[in-house]
Amino acid sequence: MTRIVSDGDALRVVRFEAAGARFAIEARHVLAMRPAVPDRELSVESWLGLAGGGAAGRCLLDVSMGGGQRLLEFAGDVRVDSLPAASIHPLPVLLAARTRLPGLAALALDADGVVLIIDPTRIDPL
Amino acid sequence: MAEASGELSLDRILADREKRNGTVVSVDEPEVKLVVVALGEEWFAVPGDLVREVLPDCPVFYLPGCPASMDGVINVRGDIETVIDLRGLLGIAPPADRGRRILLCEAGGMRSGVRVDAVEEVMDVPQSRIQAPPQTVPESRRAVVTGIMSYRDRVVTVLGLGRMFEAYRAGLG
């Protein structure tokens, strides 16, 4: 039987930043996390088609995607967190139609603004 | 005495006066509510019944990967709404100062904020005042212009919000 989502529920996510915006991936899609060897793996910015990406403090996440899994390189603060279910919204119609961000599935509102929630299973591994 | 052709009479004087005073508007003529907005020197109007509210300038959260004509999203009492820049959608150059008003509009099952420079007027006008769009409407706007009217010695271009959202969804702007 499908469980009803209540306001007190929260979604476990891995949060990160890229190209000046805040992102999250559902934690269940992240299989492992480890320190990165610079420039050996695909950066998250390249994966999402965004510019930039620093070299300092990068780590690797093993992420399950549509049709497989792959290692992605992240910079800066990458952490496991929870997003309250009540803060998560479906994409507005016009945004869903016009975004070029692969895998963008939902938005969450918090005190600091908007978090973009990416569904990696909607993105083919490169 | 019967009124001879061309002879002056009270009825004739009143009829003539009415003609000079201009067209009499029938009270039964259907009216439409319009919100008139400015984009620099150009004025546009959108159907007022599709404008949910006029928001003051509020924080807009930038989203990467969107067209330049989409400013981002806003938080409207806990709901997320997109904000489209009407200048960007209509191909009008950006101003030195960003538009300060956001119209929250709903049409064709879609809802979005629409950024404009200023709201000039909210008014009811007889439907007959709105004329069909002329052939001179730029190609890029034809899909969204539903008519024109004259107001305060200006030409006001009337936009169809449903058409506009549909065209935007399909890639306009």
Distance between the termini of chain A: 36 Å
Task: Give the count of structural domains of chain B.
Answer: 1
Pattern of helices and strands of chain B: HEEEEEHEEEEEH
Between the first and last Cα atoms of chain B, what is the distance in angstroms?
A: 71 Å
Let me know the CATH homologous superfamily of chain B.
CheA-289, Domain 4
Oligomeric state of the chains present here: heterodimer
- Strand tally of chain A is 10
CATH architecture of chain B: Beta Barrel
What string, H for helix and E for strand, traces the elements of chain A in order? EEEEHEEEEHEE
Q: Give the class of chain A from helix and strand content and strand pairing.
A: mainly beta
Uncertain regions of chain B: pLDDT < 50 for 5+ in a row?
Answer: none
In which range does the helix fraction of chain B lie?
10-25%
CATH C-level of chain B: Mainly Beta
Biggest β-sheet strands, sense, barrel of chain A: 6 strands, mixed
The tally of structural domains of chain A comes to 1
Helix content of chain A: under 10%
- The number of helical runs of chain A is 2
Summarize the structure in short.
The complex is a heterodimer of chains A (126) and B (173). Chain A is mainly β. Chain A has 2 helices and 10 strands; from the N terminus they run ββββαββββαββ.
Describe it.
- The complex is a heterodimer of chains A (126) and B (173).
- By secondary structure, chain A is mainly beta.
- Chain A has one domain.
- Chain A has two helices and ten strands.
- In chain A, strands 7-1-2-10-9-8 form a six-stranded mixed beta sheet, with no helix packed on it.
- In chain A, strand 9 (104-110) and strand 10 form a beta hairpin.
- Chain A is globular, with a radius of gyration of 15 Å.
- The mean pLDDT of chain A is 87.
- With 173 residues, chain B is mainly beta.
- Chain B has a single domain (31-169), classed as CheA-289, Domain 4 (OB fold (Dihydrolipoamide Acetyltransferase, E2P)).
- In chain B, strand 9 (145-151) and strand 10 (154-159) form a beta hairpin.
- The longest helix of chain B has 11 residues, at 10-20.
- The mean pLDDT of chain B is 89.
